[in-house]
Write a structure and sequence with these properties.
Blueprint: H1 2-9, H2 22-50, H3 76-90, H4 96-122, H5 130-151, E1 159-161, E2 169-171, H6 176-194, H7 202-219, H8 222-228, H9 239-257, H10 266-283, H11 287-293, H12 295-314, H13 324-330, H14 335-355
Antiparallel strand pairs: 1-2
């Protein structure tokens, strides 16, 4: 929106040319989303408290979490507002990638919002039925994949890339659509499962999102892409503004979500953030790198799958409780220790993911 205004003003004052630089607009997007979070956050928390929009705690969860019952939830709406406003202000609104990624993120946020609302109205931790939630996630994921496939202009946009291998691509054809569904829905639910402790999910999301922004910037630049041996995706660079907005909105929310949390993001935030990561990874053709950098999300998801399968087969549990962060809580780790150690692991995994840029 403001980019269009800057392009018009540039005809009268050349200094407005600075808005053509992706890095400049990404920084502005980050600061805008962060500012919105810090400014709107306190009033949002007060409103949530006033209308008694409080967290419903799982009855089978750790006893230490019972004290969190009633803490304002659905704070993820603050993240979505920050992302949407910053992206619309500083992004190039003629970019199809901006609209596809943003609308998919908001769609998953809407699904999570309905789930959160049902939990509140029913006064329990049960919201949408799992099948219903999965159905709507599938619809949103398939629509996103279909639109990306139908609007692709080069073969590389729908090919599978493998890290560490230069000039290697597997044409997917129509299989690109189910791959998109798998990555987006999988990432969405993985972040949602991780969102069980104060600040646990949001900072890893910020770190991975920021790293994907780096990939977006490099993939959208033909010189950098050719030098690094990564796929050149025309127009993907514009997603660095979206990634910057995600980073800023996430940090703004973390200000209030850090231990002890004043507000929880709820499914409205967790499902949306996971979908956002998955969509950016799909566009820049780095799904496998997302799997590496989001290793914490993967571990949390796998721990639940293993626990359920093993319990059905043997009647016994491998972990004291799933997802994985609850296992360490029940082993006696204080909540902040679990959170910070998971953050540190994410930093290491993100660096490993970024290292694949040169190891080809």
């Amino acid at each position: 929106m403001l980019l269009m205004l800057a392009e018009w003003l540039e005809r009268y004052y050349s200094a407005f040319n600075v808005f053509q630089y992706l890095t400049f607009r990404a920084i502005l997007g980050t600061l805008t989303a962060l500012g919105i979070g810090l400014w709107v956050g306190p009033s949002l928390i007060r409103r949530l408290e006033r209308y008694q929009v409080g967290q419903q705690v799982r009855e089978d969860g750790p006893v230490s979490h019972y004290a969190k019952a009633g803490t304002p939830t659905m704070g993820g709406a603050l993240i979505l507002v920050g992302i949407a406003v910053a992206t619309l202000l500083w992004g190039d609104l003629t970019s199809r990638y901006v609209w596809i990624v943003l609308l998919t993120t908001l769609a998953f946020g809407a699904i999570g919002g309905v789930d959160d609302w049902l939990k509140l109205t029913r006064g329990s931790s049960e919201g949408l039925r799992a099948r219903t939630k999965f159905f709507w996630q599938t619809i949103a994921g398939l629509i996103a994949g279909t639109v990306l496939y139908a609007t692709a202009t080069t073969p590389v946009e729908t090919a599978l890339m493998l890290p560490l291998l230069k000039d290697f691509a597997i044409p997917l054809g129509l299989l690109f659509i189910p791959l998109t569904w798998l990555v987006v829905v999988g990432a969405s639910n993985a972040v949602n499962l991780t969102d069980g402790l104060d600040g646990l999910a949001v900072l890893p999301t910020v770190l991975v999102g920021g790293a994907l922004g780096v990939f977006a910037y490099l993939s959208g630049n033909v010189v950098f892409a050719e030098y690094l041996g990564i796929p050149y995706v025309v127009g993907a660079g514009e997603l660095v503004v979206f990634a910057g907005a995600l980073v800023g909105a996430g940090l703004g929310f973390l200000w209030f979500n850090t231990y002890p949390a004043q507000v929880f993001m709820g499914d409205v935030g967790a499902l949306a953030l996971g979908a956002a990561l998955g969509m950016v990874a799909i566009v820049v053709r780095q799904e496998i790198v997302l799997f590496i950098m989001g290793g914490i999300f993967v571990a949390e998801t796998v721990s639940v799958m293993i626990q359920v399968l093993w319990y059905k087969r043997t009647g016994r549990r491998i972990f004291r409780m799933a997802p994985l962060h609850h296992h360490f809580e029940l082993k006696g780790w204080p909540e902040p220790r679990v959170v910070v150690r998971f953050w540190i692991i994410t930093v290491v995994l993100v660096l490993v993911g970024l290292a694949t840029l040169k190891l080809r």
